[in-house]
Amino acid sequence: MAEVVRIGLIGCGTVGQGVVQLLLAEAGEIERKVCLRLELARVADKDRAQPAKAGVPADRVTTNAADIFNDPSISIVIELVGGTTIAKEFVLQALRAGKHVVTANKALLAKHGREIYRTARESGRCVAFEASCGGGIPLILPIRQGLIANRISAIYGILNGTCNYILSEMDQKGKSYAQALSEAQQAGYAELDPTLDVNGTDTAHKLAVLASLAFMADVDFDKIHIEGIESLDAQDLAAGREMGYVCKLLGIAGRTEEGLSLRVHPAFVSKSHPLAGSSGSFNAISVYGNWVGHTLYYGRGAGQKPTASAVVADLVEIAVGNMPRTFERFRMLNDVNEQPVYAPIDDLQLRYYVRLMVADRAGVMAQITRCFGDLGIGLRAITQHEPTDDAPDGTVPVMVLTHKTREGQMKKALAAIAALDSVRAAPVTIRLVEEHEEYSS
Ligand code: HSE
After folding, report:
1. Mean pLDDT over each residue of the chain, to the nearest integer
2. Its pTM surpasses 0.90
3. Which amino acids bring their CB within 6 angstroms of ligand 1?
4. Sign, Cα dihedral of 292, 296, 302, 303
């Protein structure tokens, strides 16, 4: 007879229903693999109809999460409420009630990781969060296990399925931003508030979680430089394609001489870059270790089934006893680490794509190149197309690719360019991100 592990689930939305369905379908198979019976004892949701949709019997549904905390037979609580207010209370209450916690809540861990891990440690319980980053991709596990012998030098990740879906659909199928976003929402990729996806916040939450582990630091979410994809234009994606680049929203964390660099922004990567081939809701994450070199993790980064897969993987990790033991020893989490020194964004050395909307008249190109030249910024390519018939006042787009330069210099050049009376709109810039050196210090 397999041991029975009783589980409580709080929050039965898209992912919660996926977990319920997965357990209904696969508990027998999991039992064959690990000799444990995962039993969903109680499901709490403020709306009883949600668990019912997934097939949870009415007598196991409650609208009061305390029914789960107060049930001594439940040893693991899954938090899938989302957000950082009531979800935080639920997680802390579950830990204090002596339950292990599984969560997919990257926002919660990014902002309150220190308090949550400390509470878990004080309670002699663990928090497992594989589903918080990269959807169904095992990503936390390799960092805390398979790569444990390494010092991580950098992480480059496509970490938001919604944004990757939008960018791919715009670039490959010519869809509008609004249409692609609406499809991503229908497919269950987007957050309840999709602003968090498209403005880069969700990627930054995941980056904070990953960077804390990988660099053994109590990362302060507010120190991450964040830019989203809302202001990207189809003409920039097309210009990039023409020049051999694909646009991705990247989360980047890396050790530099100035400190830990943490940033989220759209980036052009060359078509041969390891992350270029990841389209749609797929995520791809490169992790560089000083012994292992480059490792790449790829899979569905969002959606009901992949995320449920990661949640249940954590349940098993806890139920078989791995995670509680590891967690106790773990010195890679926020609560036992210090704030790192952060590298200023202005010290980045990168190449840039710049699009300027300028008056189509003599001497304009010379004015622009002088602004770059005065700040020592070399240009590798300049493209100007003929004005289209509908161009307002003969305004034309000029696309520029720069040589490598300091971000601080670039900002100065762009300020000077924006002040020219021939420049008709704020310059659009996209950073070019090259493949990270495999073995860097
Ligand atoms: N909204 C998230 C995404 C879900 O699109 O990646 C997975 O965390």
Report:
1. 96
2. yes
3. 135, 160-162, 189-191, 197, 202, 301-302
4. negative
